């Protein structure tokens, strides 16, 4: 009974911690207000989000190597405090109207905190749930996907209403709140005792000769063909989805405005926030749903479905004019986008084992860094090239077509991967 309680507490705390980190996915809520309030371009503002995701992946890669040395509790504290500090520095940046400080604060420092914080709960829960890896890690990363709902539908609107739309004050309050929550939650994020395994689940046996010869070290794993394929496929899944995440609110406002030109800017912003919340829910559910499904049908087949069906959805997005259908397609894309994050941790464990999991998974998250820069900047540059153009138009057509191309390439490459089968490694 105590064993079950401990596992439930850990997974609950890790999920709550990830919700806090996942508020970064609500960035499109602030994209248009920042452009209009400070007269910055779409590309300039989007670099804030791009840098946050870039440093998320880079710091996750470093954190995966260092996690064993410092332990999950300390890493969770570092990650959460740096993430909260990023919001505080963003508030200062807005006060002095410094785009450079916004990049450093929210992007570099906050993004570094995101990476250290993100890799920690995932690796910790994988150790507590060796019997249900896909389901457990999927639930935890579901929290990250749900973070945008908390920010876009509750926290940000409440703070902006209380401060008469003052973005600087809203960012400052969020930063202080997140630092406080980090200090409360991090203590419960800890590994199980050495040698522990769930009742009824046998401890993993020794490393097989095949696994030892191929992936006996981190360096051997990182130069393997399987790692390269997993990295590229993960990148293809992320770059398409993250481009939508960074601009879904402005895009949807364009769609709704095309259907009803009489709507006020406030009403349009409300529609944009609603889509952020709805798609974030699908992003979160996707991590849990696809992660659990991959336990049944295999990791490789799961990625086949994720990439192939998304490519079709992106092609439809080029032609859709109806707001509800546009929203449904965006939600499906985010369902699959989250599914990649829900499936990859258990895929890494199956192929490389739990011993190498933190380092290999952290390295794979650099695909998130690359996609986090490439996706939003791609859409931002296209939108800046065609200023004032409402959806549907050349900007959206080009963006969705490129996204479909990445997904189609990932779909074809996914057939070249090995399937996820337990390695037998402790």
Write the layout of secondary structure elements.
Layout: H1 2-21, H2 27-38, H3 42-70, H4 72-96, H5 99-128, H6 133-162, H7 167-185, H8 209-215, H9 218-222, H10 225-259, H11 265-297, H12 299-319, H13 323-364, H14 366-385, H15 394-414
Helix pairs in contact: 1-5, 1-6, 1-7, 2-3, 2-10, 3-4, 3-5, 3-13, 3-14, 4-5, 4-7, 5-6, 5-13, 6-7, 6-11, 6-13, 10-11, 10-13, 10-14, 10-15, 11-12, 11-13, 12-13, 12-15, 14-15
Please state the average pLDDT score: 85
Q: What is the CATH C level class, in words?
A: Mainly Alpha
Evaluate the radius of gyration.
Answer: 21 Å
User: Which architecture does the CATH hierarchy give at level 2?
Assistant: Up-down Bundle
Helix content percent band: over 70%
Describe the structure using short key phrases.
Growth Hormone, Chain: A, 0% strand, 426 residues
Protein described:
The chain is mainly α and 426 residues long. It has a single domain, classed as MFS general substrate transporter like domains (Growth Hormone, Chain: A). The chain is built from 15 helices and no strands. α5 packs antiparallel against α6. The protein is globular and about 65 Å long. The two termini are 24 Å apart.
Summarize, please.
By secondary structure, the protein is mainly alpha-helical. The protein is 82% helix and 0% strand. The protein starts with a helix and ends in a 12-residue tail after the last helix.
């Amino acid at each position: 009974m105590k064993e079950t309680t401990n596992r439930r507490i850990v997974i609950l705390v890790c999920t709550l911690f990830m919700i806090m980190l996942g508020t970064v996915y609500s960035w499109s809520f602030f994209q248009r207000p920042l452009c209009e309030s400070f007269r910055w371009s779409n590309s300039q503002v989007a670099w804030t989000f791009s840098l946050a995701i870039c440093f998320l992946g880079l710091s996750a890669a470093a954190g995966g190597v260092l996690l064993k040395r410092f332990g999950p509790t300390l890493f969770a504290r570092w990650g959460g405090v740096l993430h909260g500090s990023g919001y505080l520095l963003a508030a200062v940046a807005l006060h002095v109207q410094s785009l450079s400080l916004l990049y450093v604060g929210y992007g570099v420092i906050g993004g570094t905190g995101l990476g250290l914080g993100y890799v920690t709960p995932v690796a910790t829960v994988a150790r507590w749930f060796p019997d249900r890896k896909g389901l457990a890690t999927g639930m935890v990363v579901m929290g990250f996907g749900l973070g945008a709902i908390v920010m876009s539908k509750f926290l940000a609107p409440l703070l902006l209403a209380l401060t008469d739309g003052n973005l600087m004050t809203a960012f400052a309050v969020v930063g202080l709140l997140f630092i406080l929550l980090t200090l409360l939650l991090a203590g419960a994020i800890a590994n199980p005792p050495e040698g522990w395994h769930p009742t009824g689940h046998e401890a993993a046996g020794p490393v097989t000769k095949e696994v030892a010869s191929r992936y006996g070290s981190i360096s051997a794993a990182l130069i393997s063909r399987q790692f390269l394929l997993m990295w590229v496929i993960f990148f293809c899944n992320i770059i398409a989805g993250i481009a939508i995440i960074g601009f879904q609110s402005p895009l949807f406002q364009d769609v709704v405005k095309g259907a009803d030109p009489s709507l006020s800017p406030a009403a349009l912003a409300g529609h944009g926030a609603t889509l952020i919340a709805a798609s974030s829910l699908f992003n979160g559910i996707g991590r849990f749903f696809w992660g659990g499904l991959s336990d049944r049908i295999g990791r490789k087949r799961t990625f086949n479905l994720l990439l192939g069906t998304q490519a079709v959805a992106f092609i439809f997005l080029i032609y859709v004019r109806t707001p509800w259908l546009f929203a449904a397609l965006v939600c499906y894309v985010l369902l699959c986008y989250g599914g990649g994050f829900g499936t990859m941790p258990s895929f890494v464990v199956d192929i490389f084992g739990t011993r190498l999991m933190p380092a290999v998974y952290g390295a794979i998250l650099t695909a998130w860094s690359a996609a986090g820069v490439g996706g939003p900047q791609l859409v931002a540059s296209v939108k800046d090239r065609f200023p004032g153009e409402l959806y549907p138009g050349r900007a959206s057509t080009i963006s969705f077509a490129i996204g479909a191309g990445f997904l189609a390439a990932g779909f074809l490459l996914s057939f070249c991967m090995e399937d996820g089968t337990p390695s037998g490694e402790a």
